[in-house]
Hints:
Layout: H1 2-24, H2 26-42, E1 46-47, E2 50-53, E3 59-67, E4 79-88, E5 97-106, E6 109-114, H3 120-138, E7 148-157, E8 160-165, E9 173-176, E10 180-185, H4 194-217, H5 222-239, H6 242-245
Parallel strand pairs: 5-7, 6-8
Antiparallel strand pairs: 1-3, 2-3, 3-4, 4-5, 4-6, 7-10, 8-9
Helix pairs in contact: 3-4, 4-5
Amino acid sequence: xxxxxxxxxxxxxxxxxxxxxxxxxxxxxxxxxxxxxxxxxxxxxxxxxxxxxxxxxxxxxxxxxxxxxxxxxxxxxxxxxxxxxxxxxxxxxxxxxxxxxxxxxxxxxxxxxxxxxxxxxxxxxxxxxxxxxxxxxxxxxxxxxxxxxxxxxxxxxxxxxxxxxxxxxxxxxxxxxxxxxxxxxxxxxxxxxxxxxxxxxxxxxxxxxxxxxxxxxxxxxxxxxxxxxxxxxxxxxxxxxxxxxxxxx
Length: 249
């Protein structure tokens, strides 16, 4: 009985030590997870400068998030975020569903390259669609991980889009985006996969980028009008169905 008590005590101590070690490296776990699974979902490079998370409160920051472009595009990035804040339930990191209470992204830089109908952002969205379709077909939940996600509140403010269209002849164009606010993603049940979460967030960005850029191009006279008229059909097709996507939580 005494030996069992000693063994049981050692086991408890071991579990506590393991939890403390994992908790102290929450940022590293998140960074590794994002950089491992992210490129599989988007089909592009994805890097993080660093993630800092408090093991007690779960509050922290993500720094230097850079989503690269698909092959064939020359811009340095598709999306760049200097810093974002987040709040995670630290206990959930060790569970089957990671609970993210809030993500707040400020002043992201977005690049759209190509044209309204065929561009880097549309290609990334197509990559995400292909990944989530494959995910559902195979029953996998992303990158071999069984973990699901829940995001209570996601807000993106102050975004600007750098438009790099050949038809503009090198003319610079910067377009502001309205606030993007998503709530209750993956709440209830088993949560949401990393692929579906990416699709909802990136789809929300894409849904705002195209109308905003189209509107600004319309203010450039004949040059902008040509870009809009030439791409109208493909733009409608690209944005079709996104409304239904956001009806599903």
